[in-house]
């Protein structure tokens, strides 16, 4: 049987005062395929997305009363757990903050 490895994305969502944010929606979208998976942060502001196809993802975090945060170019590798910490800024629902990770 052929084995296909998957990856996981875990992390924490907090505000600019380092207070955890429960109930935020976290969506990871595979850049090449547009496949996505969504979860919600728990009472400690933590999230976990498992069984993701390895590749490059865009991660969007949303919650009413905060600006939407987008972390671009999150690379997930086979059989690994990648950790992302996302900070949401207070703001209107229509505002978005993008973070682009550049590799040297």
Task: Reconstruct the topology from this structure.
Elements: E1 7-15, E2 25-30, E3 36-40, E4 46-52, E5 55-62, E6 68-76, E7 81-88, E8 96-100
Parallel strand pairs: 1-7, 6-8
Antiparallel strand pairs: 1-4, 2-3, 2-5, 5-6
Fold and architecture overview:
With 104 residues, the protein is mostly beta strands. Helix content is 0%, strand content 55%. It has no helices and 8 strands. The strands form 2 sheets. A 5-stranded mixed sheet has the order 3-2-5-6-8, with no helix packed on it. A 3-stranded mixed sheet has the order 4-1-7, with no helix packed on it. A hairpin with a 5-residue loop joins strand 5 and strand 6.
Tell me the series of helices and strands, N- to C-terminal.
Answer: EEEEEEEE
N-C termini distance: 38 Å
Low-confidence stretches: none
Structural class: mainly beta
Calculate the mean pLDDT score and round it. Answer: 90
Number of strands: 8
Strand order of the largest sheet: 3-2-5-6-8
Helices, by number, come to: 0
* Computed CA radius of gyration, to the nearest angstrom: 14 Å
Beta-sheet strand percentage?
over 45%
Using the alpha-carbon principal axes, give the shape. Answer: globular
- Major beta-sheet overview: 5 strands, mixed
Helicity level, as a percent range? under 10%
């Amino acid at each position: 049987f052929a084995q296909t490895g998957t990856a996981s994305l875990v992390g924490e969502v907090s505000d600019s005062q380092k207070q955890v944010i429960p109930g935020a929606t976290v969506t990871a979208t595979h850049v090449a395929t547009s496949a996505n998976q969504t979860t919600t942060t728990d009472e400690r502001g933590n999230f976990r997305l498992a069984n993701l196809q390895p590749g490059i993802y865009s991660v969007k975090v949303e919650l009413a009363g905060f600006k939407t945060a987008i972390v671009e170019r999150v690379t997930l590798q086979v059989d690994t757990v990648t950790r992302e910490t996302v900070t949401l800024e207070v703001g209107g629902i229509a505002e978005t903050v993008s973070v682009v990770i550049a590799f040297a």
